[in-house]
């Protein structure tokens, strides 16, 4: 199955969400863990969102959708579970979470890199070729530092926002 893309039509996307969730369920089963109803709900919220969400955003969403509140401690535990199962990623700088774009992919998953639009907060997961990351790591080491996380979180402006900006300048 193809990677989750940002530009899917919404109807197509919601159908896709279901299939991705199914895939995630199988994935957990194969590991002897279980995607409980709560975990599933939170994972689908993240898959449906184009933006990264904080634990508190997710608590709010959950209350709105399910009608019952979820304590912050439980939310963090669920997020940790989903992260351990490689179903979501944590953006360390923003302290927010995104669904992995490759939940239902068969190809191997390298260290994820993220493009983050500073205007609309849209996040895209990308893979940077390993030689580039290795070169980066070499540079870091040569300066007497050790790279703890090679996960890059890059400040960007997405095409949609960039076009809007240009239009404003033209007027
Ligand atoms: Zn993929
Ligand atoms: Zn991923
Ligand atoms: Zn944008």
Quick synopsis:
The protein is of the alpha+beta class.
Overall description:
The chain is of the alpha+beta class. The protein has 2 domains: 1-105, Arc Repressor Mutant, subunit A (Orthogonal Bundle); 110-171, Ferric-uptake regulator, C-terminal dimerisarion domain (Dna Ligase, domain 1, 2-Layer Sandwich), CATH 3.30.1490.190. It contains 6 helices and 5 strands, in the order ααααββββαβα. Strands 4-3-5 form a 3-stranded mixed beta sheet, with no helix packed on it. A two-stranded antiparallel sheet has the order 1-2. β1 and β2 form a beta hairpin. The protein starts with 9 loop residues before the first helix and ends with a helix. The relative contact order is 0.12. The mean pLDDT is 90. Bound molecules: zinc ion (ZN) (3 copies). The site of one zinc ion (ZN) has 7 residues, from α6. One zinc ion is lined by residues 89, 100-102, 109, 112, 125.
The CATH first-level class of the largest domain comes to Mainly Alpha
| Main sheet makeup | 3 strands, mixed
Rg (CA only): 18 Å
Q: Percent of residues in helical segments?
A: 40-55%
What is the fold named in CATH at topology level of the largest domain?
Arc Repressor Mutant, subunit A
The overall pLDDT, averaged over residues, is: 90
Helical segment count: 6
Present as ligands are: zinc ion
CATH homologous superfamily title of the largest domain: Winged helix-like DNA-binding domain superfamily/Winged helix DNA-binding domain
Order of strands in the sheet with the most strands?
4-3-5
How much of the residues is beta strand, in percent? 5-15%
Low-pLDDT runs of 5+ residues are none
Counting helices, strands and paired strands, the structural category is alpha+beta
Q: What is the number of independent domains?
A: 2
Amino- and carboxy-terminal Cα gap: 43 Å
């Amino acid at each position: 199955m193809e990677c989750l893309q940002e530009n899917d039509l919404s109807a197509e996307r919601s159908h896709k969400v279901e299939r991705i969730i199914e895939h995630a369920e199988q994935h957990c089963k194969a590991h002897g863990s279980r995607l409980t109803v709560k975990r599933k709900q939170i994972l689908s919220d993240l898959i449906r969102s184009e933006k990264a969400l904080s634990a508190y955003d997710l608590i709010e969403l959950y209350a709105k959708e399910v009608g019952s509140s979820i304590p912050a401690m439980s939310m963090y535990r669920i997020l940790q579970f989903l992260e351990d199962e490689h179903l979501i990623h944590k953006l360390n700088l923003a302290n927010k979470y995104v669904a992995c774009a490759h939940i239902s992919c068969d190809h191997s998953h390298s260290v994820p890199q993220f493009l983050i639009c500073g205007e609309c907060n849209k996040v895209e997961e990308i893979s940077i070729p390993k030689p580039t990351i290795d070169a980066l790591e070499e540079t870091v080491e040569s300066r007497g530092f050790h790279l703890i996380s090679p996960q890059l979180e890059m400040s960007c402006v997405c095409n949609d926002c960039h076009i809007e900006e240009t239009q404003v300048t033209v007027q």
